[in-house]
Specification:
With 125 residues, the protein is mainly alpha-helical. 58% of the residues lie in helices and 3% in strands. It has a two-stranded antiparallel sheet. This is DUF2200 family protein. Pfam families: DUF2200 (PF09966).
Amino acid sequence: MKVTAEKNEKVAKMIFASIYPLYLNRLEKNGRTKEELNQVIKWFTGFDQDALQALIDEKATFGTFFQKAEIHPNAHLIKGVVCGYRIEEIEDEFELYKQCRQMEKLIDELARGRKMEKILREEKK
């Protein structure tokens, strides 16, 4: 599927605080914890618990969320399909949409029981 400017803008305007509980609920149903979710988000965005909670409290949009994030240098290693979109084929002009899908891919892997050390990607030496 192709990402459009409209789709990118729609995601940018979504409130992170309204989606976070959905991520958490999905993970908890699969035996994972809030701490694990926050660990994955911290690895990807650099947000510690306090920064994450502040973004939730201020009802930050995904646009603001990713604007403030320091995306992990190994994020380019996140590949695969999420919601019908192949992450590595999302054009650079839709970076926000790509980042959102990358984060969802990590959360999806966590929900499916993948080991944390595999989720938090490292460059192969």
